[in-house]
Amino acid sequence: MGPGTGGADHFLAKDSGASAWSVAVTQKGNLPDEKLRGLVWRAPGRPQGVIVCLHGLQTHSAWFAPVAADLRNAGWTVIAPDRRDSGMNRQQNMAPVKSAEQLFGDLSAHLEQAVAEAPGKPLILLGTSWGSNLATAYLVRRQDARVSGLIQLVPATQVRKNLAPKFAERVLGPVLSVLSPRMPARPTFCDFHYLAGGRSQSSGKGPPAIVDRRAPLPEPPALEDSNSKLACILKKDDSLLREPSIRTLRVGLVLAEMWRKKTSAIADNTPILILTAGHDQIMDNRGALAAFPQGRVTHRDMPAGHGVQITHPHWVSRHVLEWLRSAGKRP
Fold this sequence. Notes:
Distance between the termini: 54 Å
Order of helices and strands: EEEHEHEHEHHHHHEHEHH
Strand content: 5-15%
Shape: globular
Structural class: alpha/beta
Number of strands: 8
Number of domains: 2
CATH topology of the largest domain: Rossmann fold
CATH class of the largest domain: Alpha Beta
Oligomer: single chain
Strand order of the largest sheet: 1-2-4-3-5-6-7-8
Radius of gyration: 19 Å
Number of helices: 11
């Protein structure tokens, strides 16, 4: 049996009120349109607004189900697209991510259709981990006026120093990959997430034999706070992306660098919420907070690990709803 592909029948999303979501994305030339999939939790009655949620590197749309169910019951429609080459999009043998601009085009298509779900109502963009870089970089580069608020959930802004590769690893890694593309890849967890290929090659360009190569993603270090529920889900979920391409990883680095020193490009009237996990063993939360001017964001912290959306979904949804109410009262 091949890898799972998520969807409304996935064990995380089942009985959560999820249904299928899809948008058509036009390709260049004479190539047929691509159909990008995901999940949607439609609010009963007239929705208060729409929240578009972008998942992390390994995960997929169904991982938002516990939080989305709460938000749906509170009157918000939640849309969680699967990134290309992730979740349900893996059914189509879709090529890996090519560039940040390609992801921006995908996201814009999802947002265009999301607006039609609740015309005239707020449209909120939420990104978790890897997806937080995509969401924030999109607003910095596209300055999309359709988006009325940004939420970063356990943002992947800065990795913990004890996990970052040493200087020699960052320099020699890309060189050895070029000299011997077929050599076994044994990168660290953080190499794969944010430093694959080194900064000098972060554009994702290079010989296809190298940048489209896949290798197994190591397990995260110090898995959360030894949360048995999350550990069980990580082992059980066969829809996780366990072998991303080098190009996808480099694009992730591009996204992070694209916004960290340019947050002033996000409109001043766009409210921002950052939800961090105080026991996060992967990310250094100070990086996300330092990227924004003091007083620019609302910050809430939970003494939990990086998978807080699974381990403490009601905490996440409670603070999102409180922030949405306060943001709605602003002039």
